[in-house]
């Protein structure tokens, strides 16, 4: 389980250059916001976007939403200025794109002392080195899957079941879990297709992702609902814990709920479900 107990059901990208989107984000039901200086900002708008973002973060108003700043990659002309600016920004973490090796994390940690770091896993090197990246430095707190860049590099075509992506998704997930990191699924590009979004959220949730990255506010409600424990999940967790407590009091090592056995590990999962539900409740009120 991740070291960070904050919910990351919905993680919304917004272009750091867009003042209206920055203002809107203060009102949206996103668990976290990625303020993007990378792909969503045109090359000639990078300097202005940095200044606009710094002013918006200084102004505040983002509440409990985690503020994550995505900077440009280390092989771009904007990286050094982004790092220097991010070090001064009022944010919770800095997200590095196209991380390919543990050294990328070490370099960023040295440039951003005391700052949490997140990594985009979106290249073949990033996927194949995911385990080493996950353990590179204690400042690393999360992985974000970059499924658009991955599809580009792999030459993969979009499939509704994401079969061409599955090895990459699961390799990143395994590495994140090994390292105690938050891990958030890639974006669903067709932001007006609610059914497709719901299917992909459910698939990501069932694989084990903590949440999904989003590109438009219209994607928030479905994503928040899918990645939250349902009423049935909560009821089952409560009944599992109660049945196990009763069984233990009677000197038994296992209980049975709804015809399925409940062992200590299931009770741990049940407690995690209830803790997640409480964390979401505390966030949304
Ligand atoms: C996709 C968009 C370009 C659509 O923008 P727009 O046409 O302005 O949408 P709407 O008119 O429907 O907007 C309605 C209002 O909502 C605000 N808005 C829109 N998008 C966002 C947002 N992402 N965050 C906050 N607020 C948003 C608009 O300002 C309108 O507000 P108002 O006028 O006050 O009512 C646009 O949604 C967009 O730019 N999305 C983000 C795109 C992005 O960040 N892309 C980069 C990340 S994806 C990626 O790179 C993943 C990864 O790296 C990979 O490789 O896969
Ligand atoms: Mg990308």
From TrEMBL:
Binding positions for substrate per the UniProt entry: 70, 122
Cofactors required: Mg(2+)
Keywords attached to this entry: Magnesium, Metal-binding
Gene Ontology MF terms in the entry: catalytic activity; magnesium ion binding
Family: Belongs to the HpcH/HpaI aldolase family.
The keyword Magnesium is assigned to this record: yes
Designated name of the protein: Malyl-CoA thiolesterase
Annotated binding of Mg(2+), by residue: 122, 149
PANTHER family given in the database record: CITRATE LYASE SUBUNIT BETA, LYASE BETA SUBUNIT, PUTATIVE (AFU_ORTHOLOGUE AFUA_4G13030)-RELATED
Pfam families: HpcH_HpaI
Gene Ontology BP term (one): oxaloacetate metabolic process
Biological classification of the source: Bacteria, Pseudomonadati, Pseudomonadota, Alphaproteobacteria, Rhodobacterales
Domain HpcH/HpaI aldolase/citrate lyase: 9-217
Keyword field contains Ribosomal protein: no
Domain of life where this protein originates: Bacteria
